[in-house]
Amino acid sequence: MPLEIESIVLENLYASEETFALRIFAPGIAKQAKPGQFVMLSVPGKFLRRPISIASVSGGRLTLLVRIAGKGTLELSQVSRNTKLKMLGPLGNPFGIPTIGAFLVGGGIGVAPLIFFSNLLKSLNVEHRLLYGEKCGKYVISQRFLPDGVEIFTEDGSKGTIGTVLSGLPNEVATPVYGCGPGKMIEAMIQQSSKFISTVEVSMEQRMACGCGVCQGCAIETKSGYKLVCKDGPIFPLHEIITK
Ligand SMILES: Cc1cc2nc3c(=O)[nH]c(=O)nc-3n(C[C@H](O)[C@H](O)[C@H](O)COP(=O)(O)OP(=O)(O)OC[C@H]3O[C@@H](n4cnc5c(N)ncnc54)[C@H](O)[C@@H]3O)c2cc1C
Ligand code: FES
Questions:
Q1: How far does the centroid of ligand 2 lie from the alpha carbon of residue 88, in Å?
Q2: How far apart, in Å, are the Cα atoms of 186 and each of 32, 85, 136, 181?
Q3: 95-202 and 204-244 share one CATH topology?
Q4: Is any ligand 2 atom within 6 A of the Cβ of residue 210?
Q5: What architecture does CATH give domain 95-202?
Q6: What is the pLDDT along the chain (244 residues), one digit of tens a residue?
Q7: Is 214 in the pocket of ligand 2 (CB under 6 A)?
Q8: Domain spanning 204-244: which superfamily?
Q9: Domain map of the chain by residue range?
């Protein structure tokens, strides 16, 4: 059951170029949160809240990794300790839990929910690989926020292995795959879908106003009709996604 709370910023830390980590005290939401879910976070001076994935949970604290994309996230990058931010969450459906192993594929800031997921899978002793890609090294999030063993890819080769994050997948993938990243990454996964033998789940992004199924503003067309990203998603089976 989502909670509407006034959360408190504990820390605002540099994570990489244009990216920051908010550590936020929100015990009720932290207790219920599952990997893949998100919160709607208020922005000082703005009417609409912004959807942000839960990147980790520790005690009553949430960590959110945020990349500056416009005015709202720029404003959030400047919040200081003890700032109170209204928060609604946890929202949306979580990733399904694999039993035999998995590939977690994060493109850009899309790695955020997969950090939480990787930590959960470790605690359940589910073998998995977390692949994380960025355009170039300056955007790669500081290791302090990433799980041990993460495999880094950059398109210009300035950090980790050269190539896109999808180049880290084998030619045939027999274990479940979980992806979160920009639209281009999801489109590339659809193009390569013949290599996936097992289930593939992806987290979809859409602009959101309410975050909880009221405004209908986040609808996407899927192979089984229109779905709300905030309520029916954000996690969808890859085979349901229609590219434009
Ligand atoms: C379920 C979900 C989880 C998300 N998790 C994270 C996260 O963990 N970290 C993070 O940094 N960002 C995340 N995002 C994206 C984030 O919500 C947007 O970047 C943010 O709302 C932009 O707000 P703004 O005011 O800074 O930019 P705006 O000025 O509103 O927009 C700037 C640019 O970003 C585009 N944009 C705005 N909202 C979205 C959106 N929802 N999806 C894609 N493009 C958008 C606009 O079209 C425009 O080009 C998530 C989005 C969703 C739907
Ligand atoms: S954001 Fe309002 S219905 Fe999804």
A1: 13
A2: 28, 31, 19, 7
A3: no
A4: yes
A5: 3-Layer(aba) Sandwich (3.40)
A6: 899 999 999 999 999 999 999 999 999 999 999 999 999 999 999 999 999 999 999 999 999 999 999 999 999 999 999 999 999 999 999 999 998 899 999 999 999 999 999 999 999 999 999 999 999 999 999 999 999 999 999 999 999 999 999 999 999 999 999 999 999 999 999 999 999 999 999 999 999 999 999 999 999 999 999 999 999 999 999 999 998 7
A7: yes
A8: Dihydroorotate dehydrogenase, electron transfer subunit (2.10.240.10)
A9: 3-91, 95-202, 204-244
What is the C-alpha to C-alpha distance for residues 30 and 32, in angstroms, rounded to an integer?
6
- For residue 230, how far is its CA from the centre of ligand 2 (angstroms)? 6
Q: From ligand 1's centre to the CA of 67, what distance in Å?
A: 9
- Residue whose CA lies nearest to ligand 1 atom number 38: 207
Give distance in angstroms: CA of 235 to centre of ligand 1. 16
Whether 71 is in the pocket of ligand 1, judged by its Cβ within 6 Å, is yes
**Token digits for 164?**
């896109």
Instruction: Give phi and psi for 202, each to the nearest 5.
Output: -130, 150
C-alpha dihedral, 169 to 170 to 176 to 177, nearest 10°: 10
Give the closest residue to 106 by CA, choosing from 186, 193, 9. 186
Q: How far is the CA of 85 from the centre of ligand 2 (A)?
A: 20
To test the pocket of ligand 2, the residue of 52, 210, 220, 236 to mutate (highest count of ligand atoms within 8 Å of its CB) is: 210
What contacts 123, CB < 8 A, 6 or more positions away?
none
Is the domain 3-91 a CATH 3.90.550.10 member?
A: no
Closest Cα to atom 35, ligand 1: which residue? 69
Per-residue pLDDT of 151-210, as tens digits, reads 999 999 999 999 999 999 999 999 999 999 999 999 999 999 999 999 999 999 999 999
